[in-house]
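Q: Got a minute? One more chain.
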Amino acid sequence: MSSADRYEQAARRGVDWLLAQLRPDGSYGEADLACYYKSPSALGLAGYPRQARRLLEVAVERFRTGDGDFVTSPGVKSANPIFGEFWSYPNGWLALGAARLGRLGVAYQAYAHLLKYRTPEGAFSANDSGIPDAISTAHLGYLALTLGDVDTAATAAEWLFHLLAAQPDPFAKFYLRTDENGPRESDESPLHVLTTGAPDQPYFMIGYPLAFLIRLHQVSEHPNHLVAAQSYAEYAHLCGENLIRTPFSHKVGWGAAILARHTGDQSHTALATGIADHLLSLQGPDGNWSPDGPAHATFDDTAEIAHWLLEIAAELPT
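A: Always. Here it is, folded:
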């Protein structure tokens, strides 16, 4: 069995687990937003558009506000405490899922709300702080690209290029946020600064820029976008085995697979398959991921990892 076949098989086991959680009304019951927001994308990509659309409809009915935001209750994004900071992140997932499923009204209303998080530099902030960060900029830049707003995507990419260029030399750390003085070197949380090559770092923070930049290059053909994507990939390679052997590198695997197909560079293929193989080793006996965690973590991780395994399988060079 090929690597791509193995990744698809594991992803479909995860999707089967998600499908088994659906109630007769097409919902996940009383679960909060963190259980819903990635599933429309995952189910649609796996070939279940009917279930994906109904789940998205439930999310819109239950969680969407009048201005296009998505919240579990007034002022509360989700039971997932990280959403208290990364307020814009689940909205981006729902908008991307809606676009993929043909629910363009939902996608554009969510996008109109998310443009409020755009900063003067053309980047995006995770919340109302106005502090731009790498994953929000890449995530919402990718949404802009998906919806055809190439100018907004390009300015987001330019900020990601400058963020990369402003990193310290040597790369002992990777600062993920900036202020008027450049990288925020006072940041200490791993959600704000990566320690290069350390175990269990949230490496997806640099994986999304990698994937977004190469996708943008495929549209723009601008050489700077490819150079920046390759530079993010070089940082990922620099982090070594600890990046590969963590559940937090799924988006790096996605980006590396896209870059491998685009360039033919076998080192990127090895990075993508190394990450994907490790994710397979973490899958639970029922097909889900993080089975011992709280419900929001199990739904979130299962939908996300299944989604990226399908994307990696599709992108791997044949």
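A: The mean pLDDT is 96.
Q: Perfect, thanks.
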